[in-house]
């Protein structure tokens, strides 16, 4: 598959992930206010992120591999599944696709009377954070640890589910459910990143608070991705 088509698929897939996942958090999580049964809450947002990856992987995975995440690209490189020469183009496409989704989400959200982004509020505009910017007030150490560990496990699931000896056709389901589980665990801690492109996409529009903490949501997921890829490779299971 030509590089231009692969990068377009990564752009679209990351766009879909941010629009679907972050869009559910911004537009639907608290719809109607506290106690309104129409609001989807933490469970709904977690499922939305999983569904975007599941559907995106089925639609575009055969074109680009369906990374939609710089940490996954780094992890697959560490695991011997991805050419390092393609890392930078993939990451640029992923960040650009996410940023476009963040911009569109901002335009939609701004169409509601009274909508405003509070740059000092935890989780504002679906952003990630630690300390005062963490939904549950978790420390930077706790945030870094959960992001590293969960990203590592996510990459291990991806590599296992897409192995040549894994059941054919089911990888996107396993990957989507893994991302759902990851969100169920870590939304209270960091609002869940495990994806630098997803974090950047909303932080760009959320003010100085989110931007000042964005570094962690690049560093920790990439470290986790590298660890996960290296672990799976060392297991000796990445041989057809």
UniProtKB/TrEMBL annotation:
<dbReference type="GO" id="GO:0005886">
    <property type="term" value="C:plasma membrane"/>
</dbReference>
<feature type="site" description="Selectivity filter">
    <location>
        <position position="183"/>
    </location>
</feature>
<dbReference type="GO" id="GO:0015250">
    <property type="term" value="F:water channel activity"/>
</dbReference>
<protein>
    <recommendedName>
        <fullName>Aquaporin Z</fullName>
    </recommendedName>
</protein>
<keyword id="KW-0997">Cell inner membrane</keyword>
<dbReference type="Pfam" id="PF00230">
    <property type="entry name" value="MIP"/>
</dbReference>
<keyword id="KW-0677">Repeat</keyword>
<feature type="transmembrane region" description="Helical">
    <location>
        <begin position="38"/>
        <end position="60"/>
    </location>
</feature>
<dbReference type="InterPro" id="IPR000425">
    <property type="entry name" value="MIP"/>
</dbReference>
<feature type="transmembrane region" description="Helical">
    <location>
        <begin position="210"/>
        <end position="232"/>
    </location>
</feature>
<keyword id="KW-1133">Transmembrane helix</keyword>
<dbReference type="InterPro" id="IPR023271">
    <property type="entry name" value="Aquaporin-like"/>
</dbReference>
<keyword id="KW-0812">Transmembrane</keyword>
<keyword id="KW-0813">Transport</keyword>
<feature type="transmembrane region" description="Helical">
    <location>
        <begin position="138"/>
        <end position="158"/>
    </location>
</feature>
<dbReference type="InterPro" id="IPR022357">
    <property type="entry name" value="MIP_CS"/>
</dbReference>
<feature type="site" description="Selectivity filter">
    <location>
        <position position="192"/>
    </location>
</feature>
<feature type="transmembrane region" description="Helical">
    <location>
        <begin position="87"/>
        <end position="109"/>
    </location>
</feature>
<comment type="subunit">
    <text>Homotetramer.</text>
</comment>
<comment type="similarity">
    <text>Belongs to the MIP/aquaporin (TC 1.A.8) family.</text>
</comment>
<keyword id="KW-0472">Membrane</keyword>
<feature type="site" description="Involved in tetramerization or stability of the tetramer">
    <location>
        <position position="22"/>
    </location>
</feature>
<dbReference type="InterPro" id="IPR023743">
    <property type="entry name" value="Aquaporin_Z"/>
</dbReference>
<comment type="function">
    <text>Channel that permits osmotically driven movement of water in both directions. It is involved in the osmoregulation and in the maintenance of cell turgor during volume expansion in rapidly growing cells. It mediates rapid entry or exit of water in response to abrupt changes in osmolarity.</text>
</comment>
<feature type="short sequence motif" description="NPA 1">
    <location>
        <begin position="69"/>
        <end position="71"/>
    </location>
</feature>
<dbReference type="InterPro" id="IPR034294">
    <property type="entry name" value="Aquaporin_transptr"/>
</dbReference>
<feature type="transmembrane region" description="Helical">
    <location>
        <begin position="170"/>
        <end position="190"/>
    </location>
</feature>
<feature type="site" description="Selectivity filter">
    <location>
        <position position="49"/>
    </location>
</feature>
<feature type="short sequence motif" description="NPA 2">
    <location>
        <begin position="195"/>
        <end position="197"/>
    </location>
</feature>
<feature type="site" description="Selectivity filter">
    <location>
        <position position="198"/>
    </location>
</feature>
<keyword id="KW-1003">Cell membrane</keyword>
């Amino acid at each position: 598959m030509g590089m231009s088509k692969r990068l377009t698929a990564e752009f679209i897939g990351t766009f879909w992930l941010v629009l679907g996942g972050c869009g559910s958090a911004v537009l639907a999580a608290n719809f109607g206010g506290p106690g309104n049964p129409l609001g989807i809450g933490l469970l709904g947002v977690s499922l939305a992120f999983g569904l975007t990856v599941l559907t995106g992987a089925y639609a575009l995975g055969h074109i680009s591999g369906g990374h939609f995440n710089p940490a996954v690209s780094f992890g697959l490189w560490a695991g011997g599944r991805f050419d390092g020469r393609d890392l930078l183009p993939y990451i640029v496409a992923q960040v650009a696709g996410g940023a476009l989704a963040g911009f569109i989400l901002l335009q939609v959200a701004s169409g509601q009377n009274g909508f405003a982004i509070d740059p000092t509020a935890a989780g504002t505009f679906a952003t990630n954070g630690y300390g005062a910017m963490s939904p549950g007030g978790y420390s930077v150490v706790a945030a870094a640890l959960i992001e590293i560990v969960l990203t590592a496990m996510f990459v291990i699931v991806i590599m296992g589910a897409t192995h040549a000896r894994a059941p054919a056709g089911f990888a996107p389901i396993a990957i989507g459910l893994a991302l759902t589980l990851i969100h169920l665990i870590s939304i209270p801690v960091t609002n869940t990143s495990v994806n630098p492109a997803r974090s950047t996409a909303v932080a760009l529009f959320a003010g100085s608070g989110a931007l000042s903490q964005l570094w962690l949501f690049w560093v920790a997921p990439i470290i986790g991705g590298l660890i996960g890829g290296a672990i799976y490779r060392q297991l000796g299971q990445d041989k057809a």
